[in-house]
Request: fold
Amino acid sequence: MTSKQTDSLNGIKDLLKKEKQLHKDIRKDYKKITEKINLDFDQIQKSQIKSN
Reply:
């Protein structure tokens, strides 16, 4: 394998690592957002019950 091929292969590996990390970050953010939505929804329901 030439050094150019090795550099390309290392570049691809680095991109795959970055992509994997981005997916992890997205899943974490999605989980936080989902929890926040659920909490807000519960609070809205509770406030509607109290007002009735």
Summary: DSSP finds one helix and no strands in the chain. Residues 3-51 form the longest helix (49 residues). The CA atoms of residues 27 and 42 lie 22 Å apart.
